[in-house]
Amino acid sequence: MLRNWTVGLFTLVLAFLLAGTGFRAEPPAKDKPEKDAPALVMKEMIKVMGELADVLETIKDKDSALKVKTRLVDLKKRYNAVGERARKIKFDNLPKEEKEALEKKYKADLERAVTRLLGAMAKLDDPEVRKILKAVDQEAKKDEKKGEDKKSDEKKEEEKKGRE
Known about the structure:
Structural class: mainly alpha
Largest sheet: none
Order of helices and strands: HHHHHH
Shape: globular
């Protein structure tokens, strides 16, 4: 009986996944990225905040902060990337009904994630740990700027090729 339910549920989920992609035979063009759905961005933001809180809650002193530094840098990059996606969506410009639906659906989870993240950060009062966290933030920003510089260099090269 349970096996039948599992197979049926799996088939239903697979059907929804295929229908969600529109039964597309070919992937979308890379030069035209698919538009982010506001709900996807909200889910990702909540997920990243939770992961950040998980890691921050493990920090007790300088040594434990150093052990998770690379993980924190990766999470901070993801957090910044999701924040950029959210800015591109411009939640303020969404229709009133869509904003209300998003707020109703994600408000509790978002508040929980923010509260947990702020609580984890507030417990980190060691000056040495604060220095490490500041270095993490700077490293994540530095890598983002490198990526932006690389993109602008690629655009300049394309413009040169177009003129030739």
